[in-house]
């Protein structure tokens, strides 16, 4: 799987579904309401995560209640936020009206946060990623980030999403390997024919694969070595339920297919079919085989953890409410165990941060309580120093199914079709493996 970095925006979407679009100065009862993670890059990363790709988000997150909710949703969907810049301010919110009669949506967006900039971007190492995807925003900063990446990476694809026209946008064309254009952008530049737009855009970015989504018209593809664009027609969707993030899904489908080694036209075919599936359902849940939302008992995957790592985990289906994670999942090589995030000294959490558990003490990686500086061995939870020396952390039994980790009591209740054949094998510290 490809390790993907996405640079862009994450929002909180408040989605009201109506049986028809309201008239001005009217009152109408919503048929349903849901609150979801939104934002172009965040949506694409969420879909990519469902196909097993480790995904890191680089953008700006607010420290207010809505910002914490965005962070919690990203954690829930398996998106890493260690590179996010966290600031005071109002989290970006999108108020979305979905017309059930047509599947169309109207968005009112509010944002007062600064953009992710080159200074924040320079804190990460782009060479560790297999794919780097950017949203075309704050184009002077985006150009600087793209130039930096172009100078530092070798074989990793760089892709750019262009949803709307922005000041200084044209300086971005020379950097990406793949550019995704929206139909709204093409029409805004005066084109109502996809092929004509792509022929024009070929002169802007002669080095890049160009992808243009065209709604019910399917999608179009222009490759550097071909004179005429290729077309993947759309297939009829019986009932369009929800068009929110259909374009973001198309992008994720193309990135996934290319990362798996498919050709560009084959990748576009996969992407169009995936976007059609998205149109026929509400939300993004369940588009890929490894969607955490479709597997609510999933704690995390083995490849979410470094070879020696400790991760704060909220069991799925429980709200974190901004508080500390109740569990710590620990990995040492292929060995995995879990402990309650409770110090035996006074019941406080070892850490309130998702990642701040490990420290090297006397040449050994150990868990540390940040409150009273107690240290605990990774393998058996024994306190080696501090006010509770000699006491142990409380273990939590896990069960491993392939690459996925569950609480043991939840995993054993799962449908048998999720269980590979073979007997349970006991592992140290209550860990079982059914993979």
TrEMBL record:
Top-level taxonomic group: Bacteria
Disordered: region residues: 409-435
UniProt KW keywords: 2Fe-2S, Iron, Iron-sulfur, Kinase, Metal-binding, Transferase
Domain Rieske: 314-407
UniProt key word Cytoplasm: no
PROSITE patterns associated with the record: PFKB_KINASES_2, RIESKE
GO MF annotations, alphabetized: kinase activity
SUPFAM superfamilies per the UniProt record, alphabetical: ISP domain (SSF50022), Ribokinase-like (SSF53613)
Record Gene3D superfamilies: 3.40.1190.20, Rieske [2Fe-2S] iron-sulphur domain
Bias (Basic and acidic residues): 410-419
PANTHER family: KETOHEXOKINASE (PTHR42774:SF3), PHOSPHOTRANSFERASE SYSTEM TRANSPORT PROTEIN (PTHR42774)
Protein name per UniProt: PfkB family carbohydrate kinase
Native source organism of the sequence: Guyparkeria halophila
